[in-house]
Design a protein that fits this description.
The chain has 205 residues and is of the alpha/beta class. Helix 6 links the parallel strand 3 and strand 4. It has a four-stranded parallel β-sheet with strand order 1-2-3-4, sandwiched between helices. Helix content is 41%, strand content 15%. The two termini are 18 Å apart.
């Protein structure tokens, strides 16, 4: 069962509106899983790009709150570090679909007037003081994406914290490649890899 959250969008509703919405939705789903015909002990969060950021944030919030239990986090080319000094931002500054100028503009719209001198984990999950005890993760990145090294870095940090994680780099693809699944064979294959990891996590006793 898949539930898609229609969270409030920036710039009309800047941070933390989206975080509040996805966290409230996650708690509601856990509380009403029986009514939905879902198993509250087999919950996962997933998202791509900004949605990957929000999925990672929910995994952090759930761990800190002690509930609901999140069995897996599937993060496709997520934004987690807010560190544009990573090499992929220079290498893919003018990449198709998403370049560095767009990353900076979208980030500014998302944060609104928030003071970035104090970067909370609910904005940049890679900056959380403690990443131990988080749900196992599959992080998919793309070779021609400014965010490539962002996702890879989060994978390194999770591994260092003892969290089971798999990072897959679709070397020939760009940001947003899920939109080409079913059309571009490499995108289809990359999507299927992530979904297989999710399926295995949810169906392992």
């Amino acid at each position: 069962m898949v539930l898609s959250v229609e969270y409030r969008l920036a710039p009309e509703h800047p941070y933390p509106a989206a975080v509040e919405d996805v966290w409230a939705a996650t708690q509601w789903v856990a509380a009403h899983a029986g009514e939905l015909g879902a198993d509250p002990e087999r919950l996962a969060v997933a998202g791509d790009s900004a949605g990957g950021n929000l999925a990672a944030v929910v995994a952090l919030l759930a761990r800190d709150a002690g509930a609901p239990p999140i069995r897996f986090q599937l993060l496709w080319y997520p934004a987690t570090t807010w560190d544009t000094s990573l090499p992929s931002f220079a290498e893919n500054a003018n990449a198709p679909l998403l370049g560095v100028a767009a990353v900076k503009a979208l980030s500014r719209w998302y944060v609104g007037d928030f003071d970035l001198s104090d970067m909370p984990a609910t904005l940049a999950p890679a900056r959380a003081e403690d990443l131990t005890g988080l749900s196992p993760a599959y992080i998919a990145v793309a070779g021609y994406d400014p965010l490539r090294d962002d996702g890879a870095r989060y994978g390194e940090l999770l591994t260092a914290a003892g969290v089971p994680v798999e990072v897959h780099n679709a070397e020939t693809l760009i940001h947003g490649y899920l939109g080409y699944a079913g059309v571009v064979p490499a995108a289809t294959e990359a999507m299927d890899r992530g979904l297989s990891a999710l399926r295995e996590a949810l169906h392992t006793p």
